[in-house]
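Consider the following assembly input.
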Amino acid sequence: MDPWEGLVEGKGKMKERLLGIFTSLGQLEEAIPLIQQKGAKVRTVYSPIDCREILEKIGVRKTSPVRFATLLGGLAGLSLGVGFAIYTFLEWRFVTSGKPTPPAVPLVVVGFEMTILFGFLSTLLCMLFLCGLPRLRGSQGYDPRFSKDRFGLLLECDRAQREEIEISLEQAGAEEVRVLRTRETSQ
Amino acid sequence: MKLLPLAGIVLGAASFLLGIRGEDPSRAWGSYLVNLVFWMGICMGSVTWVAIMNMTNASWGRPVKRLAEAQVATMPFLWILVALLYAGHRSLYIWSTHPVHGKERWLEADFLFGRDLLVIGAMTLVSYFLVHQSVRADEEKLLGGDETSVRLRWRRQILLSPVLGILYGVGMSVLAWDLIMSLDPHWVSTLFGGYYFMGGLYSALAWLAVLSFLFHRREGIQGKIDGSVFHDLGKLLFAFCLVTGDFFYSQFLVIWYGNIPEETKYVILRVKTEPWNSVAWVVLAGAFGIPFVALLSRKLKMSPPLLGATALVVLGGMWLERFLLVFPSVGARGQIPLGWAEVGVAVGFLSLEIMCFGWFMERVPWLPVGDPLFEKRWGSLSGDPLEVSGHLPGSNKGGKVRG
Amino acid sequence: MKDWQASTPKSYSEVQEVILGALSPPGRSYWGAVILCLFGLLYGASCWAYQILTGMGVAGINHPVNWGIYLVNFVFWVGIAHSGTLISAILYLLRARWRTSIARAAEAMTVFAVMIAGLFPFIHLGRVWIFYWIIPYPNQRDLWPNFQSPLVFDFLAISTYLTVSSMFWYMGMLPDLAALRDQSTGLKRRIYGIFSLGWQGTHIQWRHYGTAYLLFAAFATPLVISVHSVVSWDFALSIVPGWHSTIFAPYFVAGAIHSGLAMVLTLLIPMRGLLGLQPLINVGTLESIAKTMVLTGLIVGYSYGVEYFMAWYSGNMFEWDTFIWRAFGHYAPQFWVMVVCNVAGPLLFLIKAIRTNLIWLFAVGIIVNIGMWYERFVIIVGSMSHEYVPHAWGVYSPSWVELSIMLGSFSMFLFLFLLFCKFVPPVSVFEMKEHLWTHGKA
């Protein structure tokens, strides 16, 4: 799930959410420092293409922790595959062509395939989990054009700064600036 | 500095000559052969890497192109060394003293060495032409030469690259069968040629990584061999580690499974019997195990000294691998024949390579400025040609290496 | 340097329109083709049902050739599957730009080919209803499959390959399915919505997706090599002359890529024309495929040569006799078709005029497909009919049941591929947009 949605810091200030819609990633990239200077925070960037190059600008690491799931899954697969095969050989010492039971040489193949299978599946599951997929509810910031040819910058700022931020976004080249339903904070 | 390689060569020659005059000349010829096939793989493989990178339009590898091409300088010497090997064929090859029924005419010294010299000669010539076009293109570019001429030289390189690729595959297979596989003339493996030339590409890549580490900070390279080039080298090295391991395993599994005595005795001798089995484990670790684990790490691949160190481990492992292919079939031994004499001969071959490499690099620009793939990515290098190359183009003799 | 972006669409929406435009409601000829393929599929399936009910005797398999064209087709289809993964995974790792416009269709080809390949061991089994015995599960007799056997390797490898390639293909489609969801209404919107899993293209999602995709490609690459190596070991781990050969693993992998690329040409040339995808899949891409086929053809030719040389060099009279018989015995026509189609055919691509001509590309693709099918036939059937003992030599020819099932398999493949073309974006939309983005930047 979008980890920032639904939670708003409460400090007694009224927060506004603005959505800037851009036609190019470059413009959006330029807009980020402009609004960050004014004290606004980037919540989400929507993009129809891979936008990892802007991640550092919003304080997010470019590489993903998915790699650890890969490593763990691969090792699990290797040990499970080879371990299970060895177990079956010890359980039933079925000697074929005079080969030892368990044999080391063919188990390389078994281990290899299971490493790939489990490594792949764990990467897949971890990725889906971290991406918040499958996502059952829509999010308020999403515009259907974001999967076609528009880029979205969803940001949060104080109500007082709204006009300033709108102007900054337009300066950077935003095609449209939308004010989303605001959230009142609790005392 | 220049005298050091020369001293190494003298040491090698002396160790070798002492060996053949000693009580076991086959041991000396054996170490000669091991080093010969090892360095043939590296030198032919290096220039073939240039050909492969040309054919695949690989722009990432342009900064290391000259370092790879430099191995062409050693090739004529390898040709001479193979010719000299003729003198020792009776010590090495059992088929010379006991002709094998059915293969008498194929495994016959004159025919065998004739075709091998032909094959190496062809590879040397095509490599020479390829590198010549490449170097001349850069020199012409630096001297502000005609663009059409530079482009023509690139077209010639594109035409020569697949020729070298095919020659390498077929030629190295023939060399592997004749020089290594025939040491045990009753043993056959259809993948042996492929295994040898893939191992050659793998060793050549490791050698290139070591050279890149040694040279990346030199002036003539102008910092173009940066972290991303090392990362790509590392990834390719990892891929070839897997490929070489896969080729080894393909042979091993098939022979193990079929359990046919004609095939297994070769493998059993190397993997199960004393004293060779310990060497086999070291080879597995050095050529495959350690590089596999090390090259998984992104940080290691991008760090020049760490990648260079891993590449050295690979080279050590592959040298031992060639050693393990050759020596068990060269006379019965109770002990691993790895003593000072063998080290001396190995040092001799290494020094020969260093000497030829140095001779070559002194005379050529170090960056392939005339290569359109280089130009596309790094633009035309402006400034003093002396800065770009290690020397002033045209001054061949006595040029000093800058930086 | 070739500028193959010359005729590409100039904006993201243009890219999307060209690709998703291919999914517009199809005409009668499309449905005609689908129904024809469906009939072929059902015909094949009914022949299989007939075989199950009547017994394996209706197939031509008998002593000494126990592995007939069911296994030939099995190896053939696994081979076809490989170049899909080569294009989508290996070329991704190598950062080859020409891969983008064809990766989706090639990966679809892989998934369907593996599905069909996976059917053939079942078809070949006499008692299909006990297929589950190969799955390792605790049972009352304390029996376990023999993990030493290449047939068990096969089971593990093919099921892993099917899982990995279908998930890889599906994951690659997520952003495009989201695009389809966003521009559809009603039931279509619901269905694409479900399959797109709610993808929104947030930066967090791209962050994890991008890394994961690279890791997927990194896993798929060794998997490709290992799967066809495992299939080749079904033969090489025996001691049948002509089969017991260490070169089989790389030889089969190269051959698989060779036949797969030929199938890519066969499928993509009509597809790009019929779906209007010419601006995206241009001749430069097809030319790159042709050039790769020259390489794989040479490797296959090298393998043929080495096998012959070693058969002579080894002094093993059985091996040498098998290879002589292959060239001049009962299956000599198939052998020569194999050699000419696989080695000489792709060499035509050395001529630029041929490799940039769509008709020639298509024709050579078909020729190589035929040649590679015959290669599997010559290897499998040819070796089994001429083993060690002369009294055990025999000849095999496929029966009508086997040929019908083979026809059914090709129909199924075409059927699935036709459906793919119209219900799923045949080219990766977001990756083509990324090309525009990186090209547009200074």
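Confidence is low (pLDDT under 50) at residues 1-6 of chain C. Ask yourself how this observation constrains the way the partners meet.
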